[in-house]
Amino acid sequence: MASYKARLREFEALIAKDEIDLQKLKYICFNGIPDEAVNRALCWRLMLNYLPPVKKSWSELLTRKRELYKQFIREMIVSPGEVVEGDGERVDVTFADHPLNFNPESNWGTFFKDNEVLLQIDKDVRRLCPDISFFQQPTQYPCEEIVNSGGSKRLHRRVHHTFLKSANVERKGLGITRIALSVRKAPEDYAPLPEGAEAHWEVVERILFLYAKLNPGQGYVQGMNEIIGVIYHVFASDPDPEWRAFAEPDTFFAFTNLMGEIRDFFIKSLDEADTGINKLMNTLSNELRAADYDVYLCLQQQELRPQYYSFRWLTLLLSQEFPLPDLLRIWDSLFADSRRFSFLIYVCTAMIMHLRDRILENDFPSNVKLLQNFPPIDVRILITKASELAMRKKMYS
Amino acid sequence: MAKKTYDLLFKLLLIGDSGVGKTCVLFRFSDDAFTTTFISTIGIDFKIKTVELRGKKIKLQIWDTAGQERFHTITTSYYRGAMGILLVYDITQEKSFENIVKWLRNIDEHANEDVEKMILGNKCDMEDKRAVSRERGEGIAREHGIRFHETSAKANINIEKAFLELAEAILDKTSGRDPLESVDRGVTIDRRNDRGQNRCC
Questions:
Q1: What UniProt keywords are attached to this protein's entry (chain B) (predicted)?
Q2: What is the pLDDT of residues A154-192, one digit of tens each?
Q3: Of A123, A320, A365, which has the smallest distance from its Cβ to B19's Cβ?
């Protein structure tokens, strides 16, 4: 207990400085950021290089970035492609844009293409962390321009289909005509909230949409929702309202920085590149071979390929494998890694080794199931084991 | 090694656009339950179910794939080993139906030539939101000589029927041959029973 309190004091002292020692911060964050007293959201902002170490510069930077984000919303969501009209002069409409315009530069063309991306995002944010209710709850800080637009500016409205009401008409001879309007509606958990309010999933939808618009080479890839969901959850649950109020823009920029490092995992054409996902899966495979040859051999003989489980583990930084509190603890260490994301490989190796006895005993299908549904575990054990592996590697290389 | 508790092993694959309900269809079949709380499938997922057909215990090894384009390289590598493929679309999403043609082309490119196929129009409980008529579904299936069912994982309509029918079709192809032969992985079914015959007439 004494050491825990000492750790808290260490954190507080470090954060209180005018210039935060990032190396030192990473060093202590590696062992987990305590949930009380110290602010995980703040540490993540620093470790993801959104906030610079010098505190004096924070206020100017935050104001600038948050204003920029507001501008993104205005330009890309609230009034995309709107042109300010001249001073009452007649405008030549010969070349005016219209929905059937084939010109690739047409605003309408962009609008329709955007909606394809949006449809995918919309599906995914509505299945974000279904085991917790957080994302279905209203945010305290909705985007006013959007939630008070009579629904017209809401992104999901663009991809929400409207249906003509149909009715079954039954008529017997000249007798009574029976019209049965079938209205069956299932209760929907991720339902949009009424005018003036919006749920957290709607906020995440907006961030992802803007990210996809601003990074057209990459766009939106499934799985990004899982990663951004975790960051947003941490930022939007900040106990300090001054920070919490800006969870949305800050998540956008922190996520953008993080994607800068792991973006290649999401790009199909880079699968075979040195920075791509295949290479990373190979690295894991080699690490396992070095650390536990028996297990490696067993999986090899069963032809249980790493991509059956580790593709998801690695691209999503384990976000689908653990309950949220455990995941936050793991991410503390992953972000604190000075050679990002090599520690991730050790965590994954430790995960497989933790199941060693069962893997050696099991047949192929049981092993796939086991690895795809990782059993509950004390994450501290996992991190300790992973650190040992990392240390050992350091010693021998 | 434990003794084999089944006579035959069939490998099946579920493909189709993102969000059409592939995971729910599989969950209904394997666990006889429905939940809306599924996260999106990244890469590939996996379930096992043993069924009995004509006195034979058949172990179905079913792979559930991610729908989005990004995952195609990883998911198409599973096509080759599959003996049956279920192509799923969502009757409330026109686009997912239009893409069936694309998925069929994918199968032609990557799967065994004689793989058994079946098209499923899922979410047929949502009649009030229907965008693709049953006739259009049947039409495209007929055109390609493939079996077809409208299903609902939620209301448990036709799910078991679809899987069993597909398994039975595979069984028809393999019968007459040494059953043990197809137990092990990497089965390629005899080309002589090729669908190609059906196609040209």
A1: GTP-binding, Lipoprotein, Nucleotide-binding, Prenylation
A2: 888 888 755 455 555 555 566 565 655 444 444 467 888
A3: A123
* Helix and strand totals (H; E) in chain B: 7, 6
| Mutation for testing the B interface, residue in A113, A116, A118, A123 having most B CBs under 10 Å | A123
Q: Is the pLDDT of residue A108 over 60?
A: yes
Q: What is the pLDDT of residue B183?
A: 46
Handedness of CA A234, A239, A241, A242 (dihedral sign): negative
Mutation site, B3, B27, B37, B42, interface A, largest A CB count within 10 A: B42
The DSSP symbol for A74 reads: I
Give contacts of B46 with chain A, Cβ < 8 Å.
Answer: 308, 365, 368-369, 372
Q: Mean pLDDT throughout B42-68?
A: 92
Burial of B120 (0-12, 13-18, 19+ CB in 10 A): buried
Nearest C-alpha neighbor of B83 from the set B51, B61, B52 = B61
Percentage of the residues of chain A whose pLDDT score is greater than 70: 85
Question: Between chains, do B39 and A130 touch, taking CB under 8 Å as contact?
Answer: yes
Comparing CA positions, the residue from B116, B171, B118 lying closest to residue B141 is B118
